[in-house]
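Notes from the 1:1 (GR / supervisor)

We went over the backlog. Supervisor wanted to see one worked example end to end before approving the batch request, so GR pasted a single chain during the call. The sequence is below; no edits were made to it. Supervisor asked that the structure be written out right there so they could see what the output format looks like.
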Amino acid sequence: MSPDARPADAVSDAVAAAFRDERAIVLATLIRQVGDFQLAEDAVQDAFEAAVTVWRRDGVPANAGAWITTAARRRAIDRLRRNRSVADRAERLAELTRLDAPGWEPSMDEDSTIVDDRLRLVFTCCHPALEMPARVALTLRALGGMTTGEIARAFLVAEPTMGKRIVRAKRKIADARIPYRVPADEDLPDRLRGVLRVVYLIFNEGYAAAEGERLVREELCDEAIRLGELLCRLMPDDAEVWGLLALMLLHDARRAARVDPSGRYVALEAQDRSLWDGDRVGEGLAKLERAVRLRRPGEYQLQAAITALQIQAPDAEHTDWAQIAELYGALGRLNPSPVVELNRAVAVGLAAGPAAGLELLEPLLTDPALERYQPLYAAHAELLSRAGDAEGAAGAYERAIALSANDVERAELERRLRALR
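Structure output shown during the call:
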């Protein structure tokens, strides 16, 4: 390695960390300041591209977030000066120039500013004028920093389809002049469903990354939990907000046990439970209890109750899979979904035997929505293996392996296939 490679790598790591930790904060702040979603996003992208060159020349700044905010604001000023067709151009330029004056710099840690800006961004992306899939996808892209490919997999659609959906959503915000604000109290409940789905999809991508070398993307889990906590402060009387936060905390409590020291996947039944975060478990159970006290059952509370049964069992052998199957049945009645039916089939298979689980799972193999859903084939393989059908299980494992884009999950499926043979 050449002497110049190490500084370059260090700067690349610093830029990547700033992108992960600061991008959503900077974008939310700049949208408020510039009044244009696409202009703000382009300016933030310009700022990160500039950081690669400037930080290599001058060194990484002590406050990377403040540097990116200032650079993005100046790139927005440059873009506004070049684009004379922008509505209210003079007013926007005047405001940005005022904010860019020497001696004026907001604190990146000021809680009220960050909370307000990020909640505005969430509810803007989840505005009713946008179709539900577009609301969720756009918020994942803007606030979670997820790639279009990651979002496409979360929705089980093709990546080009998702890309067009996001572009149309941004155009709709601009054309319809959708306001950048938190809705009035009377409008909040109607807008909440899309927001909760957004937060949960961000968490899911962090908890079981769709692709790459890591099983867990801690930054996305942390972001989703932080957003969940913000929503609980915003809507403390909504049971589903507390249910979602409980669900995420209970899942996240097992983070340290989900891979071994060599990075290999560890299934739930084989996890070292002493590695589970007891404080986080207690916090999650407390949030679930608060949700239940509000006496308005919902899908996230049911999912949190399922996770609580798994996490409170003394060991895998004594997990109450029959009750978990019943809860999945209730969840399916409340929110019908092929993924819920898949989970119910697995629970039934563990409670009543693999044949009972396979009876429920096999119709899902012809569901077009699950055609490329890797967990379906992994679950099919496990149930077939338990039923003694080694040949069928091998074929299902091969299908699951072919659909795996995450290195850790693929390695575990390959290990199971080798053990089967």
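Supervisor's comment: The first strand starts at residue 211 and ends at 212.
Batch request approved.
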